[in-house]
UniProtKB/TrEMBL annotation, chain A:
Cross-referenced SUPFAM superfamilies: MetI-like
Residue ranges crossing the lipid bilayer per the database entry: 31-50, 157-181, 188-209, 221-242, 263-286, 321-342
Pfam family, one: BPD_transp_1
Organism: Azospirillum griseum
InterPro entries found in the cross-reference section: MetI-like (IPR000515), MetI-like_sf (IPR035906)
GO CC terms, sorted: plasma membrane
Subcellular location(s) per record: Cell inner membrane; Cell membrane
Oligomer status and interactors: The complex is composed of two ATP-binding proteins (UgpC), two transmembrane proteins (UgpA and UgpE) and a solute-binding protein (UgpB).
Name this protein carries in UniProt: sn-glycerol-3-phosphate transport system permease protein UgpE
Family of the protein in this entry: Belongs to the binding-protein-dependent transport system permease family.
Gene: ugpE
Keywords: Cell inner membrane, Cell membrane, Membrane, Transmembrane, Transmembrane helix, Transport
Domain ABC transmembrane type-1 span(s) in chain numbering: 153-342
Job description of the protein: Part of the ABC transporter complex UgpBAEC involved in sn-glycerol-3-phosphate (G3P) import. Probably responsible for the translocation of the substrate across the membrane.
Length: 356, 343
């Protein structure tokens, strides 16, 4: 099955494999699989991005064009509005670019923009629209003025930032207590934290809603920020890391009369930065994308976060895909950027902790 | 000791170093504000009791938003009426459980009193089985391919992984746009000479795409776990097999699979736990439809408690307790397996 490919120097350079072995059919199959994967994973997102720049008219086209296109228009002397431009096959077989001024049934009245005086009648099926690439940027700018899109964006940002700060603070405090100290009830506390692993918010929606109501947080962003702030995965991740911090450091600080709080804030926290960064990234992802709980608790439009607003839009704006697609891209963009810069960091974080 | 310190310091470089630099300034101010009161607390209760102070905020959050709700949920499930506050709800005994479990035949959802619940159970089971098979198959194949000596491994790994980070709503909308009546896929189908398919009108297709989209969105995560397992298999095992002239299939069957088994088991259980709770993507993609073809248990609970005209917290509570019991058992299995993997 192994056959050496006879190719030029450049070919050999491109086709060389790690370890310098020759190609095997399984290598070709592997690359084919990966190429298909790139198409299947990136394709849909690329299609979303391209579609989000299309005008509503272009979105209704079937079959759709790959790139965002719009029909070209020319201004014709004597007509106040610009007229659509078509490429027309004339009776004698020649092809001319004409502007359409009126259409009656299967006949179209066209004029040559250079000779506006003369009207030409053409059967409608002999003309093809002249098109050029056009980005419908208004898909992105209109929602800003029409649907208070900035408010949803701000809500999502506030929830993400505040929740992540609280998450880092309270989980690192708990992790510190559970890694550095020996105390009565430590086992029980650990068991309690593990226990919460088994209770996803999906199964306690209504009671958490009650608690949040009694605390007076309904229809405020606190209702989304607080319930998920303490996370067992966060506590464990940080605790595992803090266990590796040498005890001598802490003992030395105690000798210097540092308070326990100072040891936590000034020694343990800075040394736990890598673990804190992993938790911070995860917290940002969780919060930015959270759906079911905000859907249940945020009923007023003005406190909607981006995913909830998107979901509401797709119910209300069935026909307004152009806005919906653009807003989806805006929701996706921050995550894509974070991933582009921290890809290695995120994947190794997941591989080490097994959480997401 | 200095060695360990240095390794911590080195690990802190990279993206987290920037974070550290930004936070240093504000950390100084924070320290000046927080240290005196915390020092006073320590003087008051003694250093030995300080761990309780550190644990307190977390436990308050867990107590308020996890343990208390579990209790309330059980109260909800045995009380009736429409009031939210447990004290205002009349005792109803096992009424809700009886209603949920009242079936002519458990094999036929239509014969049940709460047929929607049982349709949800049935759909969730179908979804879970399909999802487990597809997810394990695709993430295993991808991990095996990525573990080969290929160029650009980091890039390809990232390609499969990035959908994991997308919001489920975004994922669902991306695919809804492709699968709609005049969407990209139907354009491809008609260009190839086929006919348009109304994917969300046909129950079978709706379920297929629900599974497909979930696999698309999450397979990168499981691929990563399996790839880590594959890379932990010592090279010399393979080298020895190669020297003996063992056939590739036999190598996979006798070496790779047994050594990867712990990771594979963790993946299986994680997929199982997450499939049982599936909601977000499917809800946005199909809305549970057509009819009830992709209605899942969690959607039933959500609708019963929040989206219906009459909010039935009792019925939703009882369904949650049943789902919670299933999840509890599954999580115990997962903990047992991860612990065994660690040791």
């Amino acid at each position: 099955m192994t056959g050496k490919l006879r190719t030029g120097k450049l070919g050999r350079l491109l086709l060389a494999r790690r370890g310098g072995q020759s190609w095997h059919w399984t290598d070709i199959a592997s690359y084919a699989y990966l190429a298909l994967g790139v198409l299947l994973m990136f394709g849909p997102v690329l299609w979303l991005a391209l579609s989000s720049f299309k005008t509503p008219a272009a979105l209704l086209e079937f079959p759709p064009s790959l790139l965002p296109m719009a029909q070209s228009e020319v201004s014709v002397p004597g007509y106040p509005q610009p007229q659509p431009l078509f490429r027309v096959t004339m009776e004698d077989g020649s092809v001319r670019e004409l502007a359409q001024i009126r259409r009656v049934g299967i006949l179209a009245q066209m004029v040559d923009p250079k000779e506006p005086g003369q009207t030409i009648r053409v059967p409608a099926d002999r003309r093809i629209p002249v098109r050029h690439m056009a980005l419908a940027v208004e898909n992105y700018t209109d929602p800003l003025t029409q649907f208070d899109f900035l408010r949803f964006l701000r809500n999502s940002l506030v929830v993400t930032v505040v929740a992540t700060i609280i998450t880092l603070l309270i989980n690192s405090m708990a992790a510190y207590a559970l890694s550095v100290y020996e105390f009565r009830g430590k086992k029980l506390a650990m068991l309690g934290v593990i226990g919460t692993l088994m209770i996803p918010i999906t199964i306690i929606l209504a009671p958490v809603y009650l608690v949040v109501t009694k605390l007076g947080f309904v229809d405020s962003l606190w209702a989304v920020i607080l319930p998920g702030a303490a996370t067992p995965t966060g506590v464990f991740l940080l605790r595992q890391y803090m266990l590796t911090i040498p005890r001598d450091l802490i003992e030395a600080a105690r000798m210097d009369k540092a308070s326990e709080w100072r040891i936590y804030a000034r020694i343990v926290m800075p040394l736990s930065m890598p673990a804190l960064a992993v938790l911070a990234i995860f917290s940002v992802m969780w919060r930015w994308n959270e759906f079911l709980w905000p859907l249940a608790v945020l009923t007023k439009t003005e406190v909607h976060t981006l995913p909830i607003a998107l979901n509401a839009f797709q119910g209300e704006l069935q026909t307004q895909w152009h806005y919906l697609l653009a807003m989806t891209v805006v929701t996706l963009l921050p995550v894509a950027l974070v991933f582009a810069f921290l890809q290695r960091f995120i994947t190794s974080g997941i591989a080490n902790t097994g959480m997401k | 000791m200095t060695d360990t310190m240095r390794s911590h310091g080195e690990a802190a470089r990279g993206p987290s170093a920037a974070v550290a630099a930004v936070t240093t300034g504000s950390a100084n101010t924070l320290m000046r504000l927080t240290d005196p009161p915390m020092r006073a607390v320590q003087r008051l209760i003694g250093a030995a009791r300080m761990p309780y102070v550190f644990l307190l905020p977390n436990l308050v959050f867990f107590g308020l938003f996890v343990f208390l709700p579990i209790g309330i949920n059980i109260v909800f499930s045995v009380t009736g009426g429409t009031a939210l506050f447990p004290g205002e709800r009349p005792y109803a005994g096992a009424e809700h459980y009886a209603r949920l479990l009242d079936c002519g035949s458990y094999l036929d959802a239509a014969s049940c009193r709460e047929d929607l619940f049982w349709r949800g159970v049935g759909n969730t089971l179908t979804f879970t089985v399909l999802q487990m098979v597809a997810m394990v198959l695709f993430s295993l194949v991808t991990a095996l391919v990525l573990n080969r000596p290929i160029r650009g491994r980091g890039f390809f790994r990232a390609v499969y992984f990035f959908p994991v980070l997308l919001s489920p709503v975004v994922v669902a909308l991306i695919w809804k746009w492709i699968l709609q009546r005049d969407g990209l896929l139907n354009a491809v189908l008609t260009t190839a000479g086929g006919e348009k398919i109304l994917f969300f009108v046909d129950p079978g297709w709706a379920m297929f795409w629900a599974v497909f989209v979930s696999v698309w969105a999450h397979m990168g995560f499981y691929t990563l776990i399996l790839l880590a397992g594959l890379q932990a298999i010592p090279r010399d095992v393979y080298e020895a097999a190669e020297m003996d002239g063992t056939r590739p299939w036999r190598v996979f069957h006798r070496i790779t699979l047994p050594l990867l088994w712990p990771n594979l088991l963790v993946v299986l259980v994680l997929v199982l736990i997450r499939s049982v709770q599936v909601f977000d993507e499917v809800f946005v993609l199909t809305g549970g439809g057509p009819g009830t073809a992709t209605l899942m248990v969690v959607q039933y609970i959500y609708t019963t408690a929040f989206a219906n005209q009459v909010q039935n917290f009792g019925l939703a509570g009882a369904a949650s307790v049943l789902l919670g019991a299933v999840l509890f058992v599954l999580t115990l299995i997962q903990l047992f397996l991860t612990r065994r993997r660690a040791s």
